[in-house]
């Protein structure tokens, strides 16, 4: 791994952490939960970025990163006595496929405005390609963060708050 790749992974993780802080603050969690959300987002997004740059398909890389975030969320939930969802949801939000969703709608609009049959076929192909990519990324996020909860139910559904 080159120095440039390490720099890119770190910058990607930092940007995801900043976004996760913004998403976490909206729900008014405890301060230490905001910090954990930033850490999980940075680690998960950097892992996804590294896997994509290593040649893994984006949906599969997203699934691995979301599973990683889910596992760490369960661990941090037990350490700081706060529900895992408080960390995992803001950490996953920077991985939402906004660009693919945008390209899907843009292709649909171009398809509807096009009068050329050949261009229309290209637009409809772009529509389905981007739409399916966005759908599978969202599915990977949901399944990836849910699997650790299903595999470790005793850790996931035990009392996490001190009384």
Structural notes for this entry:
Helix 1 (3-26) packs antiparallel against helix 2 and helix 3 packs antiparallel against helix 4 (85-92). The protein is mainly alpha-helical. The chain has a domain at 3-96 and 143-156. It has helices spanning 3-26, 31-53, 58-80, 85-92, 98-113, 117-151, 153-156. The model has no long low-confidence stretch (mean pLDDT 91). Helix content is 82%, strand content 0%.
Taking the alpha carbons of the first and last residues, their distance comes to 47 Å
Q: Helix proportion of residues, in percent?
A: over 70%
Q: pLDDT below 50 for ≥5 consecutive residues: which ranges? A: none
In terms of quaternary structure, the protein is single chain
User: Using only CA atoms, what is the Rg?
Assistant: 18 Å
SSE arrangement:
Layout: H1 3-26, H2 31-53, H3 58-80, H4 85-92, H5 98-113, H6 117-151, H7 153-156
Helix pairs in contact: 1-2, 1-4, 2-3, 2-4, 3-4, 3-6, 5-6
Concise overview:
The protein has 163 residues and is mainly alpha-helical.
Descriptive tags:
163 residues, single chain, 0% strand, 82% helix, mainly alpha
């Amino acid at each position: 791994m080159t120095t440039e790749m390490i720099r890119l992974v770190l910058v990607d993780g930092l940007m995801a952490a900043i976004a996760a802080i913004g998403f976490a603050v909206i729900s008014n969690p405890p301060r230490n939960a905001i910090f954990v959300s930033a850490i999980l987002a940075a680690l998960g997004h950097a892992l996804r970025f590294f896997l994509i740059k290593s040649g893994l398909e984006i949906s599969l890389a997203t699934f691995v990163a979301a599973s990683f975030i889910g596992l760490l969320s369960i661990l941090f939930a037990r350490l700081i006595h706060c529900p895992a969802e408080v960390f995992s949801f803001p950490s996953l939000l920077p991985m939402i496929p906004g660009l693919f969703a945008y390209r899907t709608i843009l292709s649909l609009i171009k398809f509807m405005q096009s009068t050329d049959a050949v261009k229309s076929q290209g637009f409809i192909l772009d529509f389905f390609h981007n739409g399916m990519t966005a759908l599978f990324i969202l599915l990977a996020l949901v399944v990836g963060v849910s699997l650790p909860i299903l595999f470790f139910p005793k850790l996931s559904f035990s009392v996490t708050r001190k009384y």
